[in-house]
Amino acid sequence: MTKKTKGSTKWVKPIEKPKKYAGILLAADFWYGRIIEEPEEIKRILTEAVKRAKNIPLEVTIHKFQPQGITGVVLLAESHISIATWPEINYVAIDIFTCGEKSMPYKALEYLKKEFQPKRAEVREIKRGKMK
Amino acid sequence: MKNEKLKIKKIYGKELILDLFDCDPKIIRSKKKILEYSDKLCNLIKVKKYRKPICERFAFEKDSATGYSLVQLIESSSITGHFSELWNRAFINIFSCKLFNHKIATDFTKKFFKAKKIKNRVLIR
Q1: Domain containing B66: what range?
Q2: In whole angstroms, what is the distance from residue B25 CA to residue B3 CA?
Q3: B5 Cβ neighbours under 8 A, 6+ residues apart
Q4: CB pair distance less than 8 Å for A79 and B82
Q5: Given an 8 Å threshold on Cβ–Cβ distance, is B50 in contact with A73?
Q6: Which of A56, A96, B52, B76 is most buried, taking the most CB atoms under 10 A from its CB?
Q7: Is B48 helix (H, G, I), strand (E, B) or coil?
C-alpha cells in the first residue's frame, strides 16, 4: 500500500526478495503410457534423465517385483530421482528431487515423458528447504 | 447424477515429504543413527524393507550437498533421505502404495533427529 502522510513522505510497500529454497521436487504421475518392465532399461532411462538434469549420479538401486512392477532410486550428488511402476493399472510415479542452481529438473521430466509417453501426466512442483 | 463429483478417487499411494530444520548435528552425521532411523521407521509404519539400505556420505566441494544420503527400498516403494551437514537439515521422502499413518511418521522423524522445526507435506498419488 502506498500512502502519503504528513510526517513522512510515503509508506512504501517493502520489496519482497525472491524466496530461496534448498531444492525442488517434481512429483510426476504418468498414466496410460509405455510399460517398461526391464530393470536394465529403467536404469538406462533414469541415468539419461540424470544427465539431462545436469546432475551427477552416485548410485542406482532397482528392484523388479513379481509378477510385475518396479521400484528404483538413483542417488545424485544433488538428491535423487525415484520411480515406482504399477503396470496393472498403467501408472508410473516419478520423483525428481534436485538442488543446486545448475540443476535442470524440468529437462529430466521432459525426457522421461518422451520415454514413457503417458497419455495423461500430472506434475506437482514442491519447493523444499526455505533458506533464511 | 448430482453426486457424480463425489465419486471417490482411487488412491494408489501416499508420499510424505519432510523438511527438517536445525537437526541434532551429531545424529545427522552418524551412519549408525541414520540406519537406526530407517529401521525403526519401517517397523513403526509397518512397511516391509527390501534389501539392505544404502547409506553413504558424499562430500563435495559445494558444502551444502555434503552429508549422508539414505535409500531404503520397501516392498511398497521407497524411503529416501538427504542430510545436509552445512545446514543441519534433513530432507526425507516416504513413498508407499501401502497406506501409512503420516502423523506418526512425522512425529517420530522430528523427535529422532531432534529437529527444531519440521515442514511436512502429504501427496496422494
Answers
A1: 12-124
A2: 52
A3: none
A4: yes
A5: no
A6: A96
A7: coil
pTM here?
A: 0.85
* CATH code, A62: 3.60.90.10
Chain A: residue nearest B121 by CA? A126
Dig out the grid coordinates for A109 from the structure. Answer: 521430466
Q: Which domain holds residue A121?
A: 21-130
A64 in any annotated domain:
yes
- Residue A8, pLDDT > 80, answer no
Q: Does B117 touch chain A (CB under 8 A)?
A: no
- Given a contact cutoff of 8 angstroms between Cβ atoms, the answer to whether B72 and B53 are in contact is yes
Chain B residues whose CB is inside 8 A of the A23 CB are 91
Question: Which B-chain residues 43-62 have CB contacts (< 8 A) with chain A?
Answer: 50-51, 54, 56, 58, 60, 62
How does pLDDT run across A30-61, given as a tens digit for each residue? 999 999 999 999 999 999 999 999 998 999 99
pLDDT along chain B (125 residues), means of 10: 52 92 97 97 94 87 80 92 94 93 97 97 94
Whether A108 is covered by a domain: the verdict is yes
Contact (CB, 8 A) for B93 and A79: no
